[in-house]
Amino acid sequence: MSVTLTDVAQRCGLSASTVSRALSDPDKVSAATRERVQRAAREMGYIPNRVARSLSMGRTGTIGLIVPDIANPFFPPIIKAVQQRCAGKDLSVLLADTNEHSADELDRARTMSKQVDGLIMVSPRSPDRRVGEIAALGPTVFVNRHVPEAPSVLIESPDGMRQAVEHLTALGHRRIAYLAGPRRSWSNQQRRTAVAAACAERDAELVEFGPFEPQVQAGVRAADLLHGTGITAVIAYDDLIALGVMARMSERGLRIGVDVSVVGIDDSPLSGVAYPTLTSIHVPCAEAGTAAVDLLLDVLDEVTAEDDPAPLVELETHLVIRGSTGSAPTG
Amino acid sequence: MSVTLTDVAQRCGLSASTVSRALSDPDKVSAATRERVQRAAREMGYIPNRVARSLSMGRTGTIGLIVPDIANPFFPPIIKAVQQRCAGKDLSVLLADTNEHSADELDRARTMSKQVDGLIMVSPRSPDRRVGEIAALGPTVFVNRHVPEAPSVLIESPDGMRQAVEHLTALGHRRIAYLAGPRRSWSNQQRRTAVAAACAERDAELVEFGPFEPQVQAGVRAADLLHGTGITAVIAYDDLIALGVMARMSERGLRIGVDVSVVGIDDSPLSGVAYPTLTSIHVPCAEAGTAAVDLLLDVLDEVTAEDDPAPLVELETHLVIRGSTGSAPTG
DNA sequence: TGCAATACCGCAACCGATTGCAGCAGGAAA
DNA sequence: TTTCCTGCTGCAATCGGTTGCGGTATTGCA
């Protein structure tokens, strides 16, 4: 049904090998042959079968990308960046969404492993041991989680977190809440310790709530917990939770940015359109995606020697101040 | 390096064929053998090579998904739904983003074609001829575009559009702007004609602007065009444009929902957190994704006979009224 | 003109699984 | 005891490319 290499070869009166070379390694054949083959291939509408090629070459030209939740606005920019970077290098992207279900991560990684040249795991929720198993399946890059034995792209929350706390304390806030993300989440742990350190340094009192799922509804729930605690400022694990908090508090008559200040993390497009606009810690998602692909390609091309220490890319975050933060209410 | 079927076979003192059958068609071998093979496979950590399987079976167990822009909040829910549906059927998803570049669609489809069992094209921007070429590459389902010769999942804007216009005219608006999306976009054409029809029916005046890219910035630009036109209500091609309009107008001191009403389309999560919350036409993205996969599987399993008319799934839309629309300003 | 070097091309094995067909052994029936 | 059948397993071809190796024709140089 579909045109194969052999078909093209027959049409040209050549062998499949020659046609293969003419198409993928043009210098190996004479100019005349090359010309003839390429014309025939074009005319016949030949499309190389990547599956067959993969099998014989041992390289699939595909990378796997596993994320917890495509619908969370934090991930699309990463996915997009990975995609774009790959497209430029003639790579395809196999995407999987684990639905925030950590147990699925290993399964997905396993079924993918023989189908891809490498894997990019974003914000894996699995416990360390299972993450190790994933890494053992093949070349793997982790984003938003530090895995000592594998290349990782990290998002350095501490800077942004410190900026956020400085910003809030400068505005007079003394009691600050941190709304924690999923317990397993590496980035949550990062953020927790960072905010704790920053608060200690600034002599502000930190109260932690959670864990919460990274969803608007969780933020709505969180808002009610804050009631009557004397807290004047909130830092949420991510923008979704922050938005939920804002929505619920507004509903209850609190003025965001006046009666209470809210800080999100991710600086997703949402933060610019919310009301009031959300002060958020900017996370360079696109850069993270791009860096992950580059790291993976380094491993695949063996730029990274086997026994080198696993490379680490650390990306900075910074606070973007918008309307949701303001002076602490007096009295 | 990695354990193959043959390795398992040797360990068991069997042939590869038997092992293959024991694993994928257990009834074909004796109970004892089945047991022995399965245990060995488990112990050795055997993971079947899907690439090899694809080659010999002629089925890859993968479907391709091509979208214009992953970062546009309209698409992630679709991608997610497709993903979820596929995961349940042991299918993988190959994702490509054309960056709103219609010329890339055919390219991507072509390179994917030999690597997937079928293709789902969401909102293709290509001209009809090229869309036809894509469909000719293999089983293809189109979402958000009607392609007569191929299965399609359509989102019926007319209902939602009519509801929107009725809503606005009931509120007293007589001059309504439509901010058009990409010229090539099938859904834009749908929406244009739907809104025009609804306005004619309701005797409201319709003024069209655009085309605009489906991005917030385009909405910001659009807002300024509306100035001094006497328009009191705006229906935008999508939520992003609507949000841009709102943001810019608020900035210029207009009160959204009072001085001017804004309606978006997609009902993305954004609309709930914007200020004011955005009245939007709800589009069942998840259902569209799921339906697309089902349609594709029907074709692949030949539930759909070759010469049947191409199946069509039509999904309804409806207006969700929020804070961005209100009575037309008097005078 | 002769010989060696070189440029091209084809043969065949291979990647890892699937599957039609044939062979073998064991049990059942006569 | 013989025969036939059935159930299980192995052989070998196949999917569509890639690639090392060897052969042939051509070229270059003396």
From TrEMBL, chains A, B:
Question: Sorted alphabetically, which Pfam families does this protein's record hold?
Answer: LacI, Peripla_BP_3
GO molecular function terms listed in the Swiss-Prot or TrEMBL record: DNA-binding transcription factor activity; transcription cis-regulatory region binding
Give the keywords, sorted: DNA-binding, Transcription, Transcription regulation
Domain of life assignment? Bacteria
Q: Domain named HTH lacI-type: which ranges?
A: 3-57
Q: Which SMART domains match?
A: HTH_LACI (SM00354)
Write down what this protein is called: LacI family transcriptional regulator
Species of provenance: Actinocatenispora rupis
Classification lineage: Bacteria, Bacillati, Actinomycetota, Actinomycetes, Micromonosporales
